[in-house]
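Page header: ASSEMBLY MODEL / two components / 350 residues total.
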Amino acid sequence: MSPIGKVAEVFDAIQKAKEGASGFVTNFFPVQQKLQGWVDHGELFAELRDGSAFFWRKDRDFWHLYFCAASLASLKRAVPGLHSLKTEPVMIDLVGNEAALGDLLALWESEGFRHYTHLQRMARASQSGPHRSDANGTQVVDAGKMDAPAISDLLGRSFDRYAEQLPMLYEIESAIESRQILVVKCEGMLGGLLFFETHGFTSTVRYWLVAEGFRASHLGSALMRHYFAAQSVIRRFVLWVIADNADAVQKYQHYGFLPDGLVDYVLANEKIRP
Amino acid sequence: MKSVVEILKEIRPEFDFTTSDDFIGDGMLDSYDMVTLVATLDKTYGISISGVEIVPENFKNLKAIETLLGKYGVRS
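Prediction written out in full:
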């Protein structure tokens, strides 16, 4: 694999993999801004093999692997040549409608990957009428630059780094600058946060959590209501949640989110310890 | 046969696709939706959109999608 120095190299490699194809098999859905961040921080590497393009992204102590191939057959031919699969800890996300993922799952399982977990996407259409920012006396504010390390620490303690695409510190700092992290502080400590990304008329809830010790204080509710009220022009809210986290799913359902049919199967190779 | 607007409406019923010139920039379609859209266009119009054509610019607005379909002989 070789390091990627420019975002354009990514798109060139993808186009090469697509050449002559009537279809396209991929798990790579990059957003320009995110790609730029990965490239700027030296996290992204490419490997072209047998006409397929593979992208390796370094994340803390493991790798995310993305692929772009003209067909399942060409992907099948190329994967055995990826020698790093035998030596490095690697995670793969397979995203799509459940019925369409069977062949891809079988391919990666035959290469030694195991099911790690799966996420489902939930969506909520904006509800008409004014949103009530019922903060119940709780003060919800935009996170400040100084909050970044505490946010990073809280996310790291609360979510699964292998499955939930945890942001690096620079991504948290960038989100703070864009005013996309809401927080509640209690006696100077971070009590809870809601981290979101808004793109046009769609907003994605990336992380919503209340720190241990502050639960049952309605901080989570205050954060969510504040968020909805502040995003009044948004027509569609989406999020990804671990599908068997019944408690989280139920909470999101309470706020009107429903599964929209898209799933993310997260696979791990044998170098990832359970 | 369904029109492009009807297909888009089935994928994202909450949006009015006739009022936007930039579906991607306005957050009305994301990368996953594009994959669904390509599959639906292929099936509806009996075509097979080439991999190299599956880029955001070709799905940016109604005109871009109609231009793309035109390359496959489809008049939507």
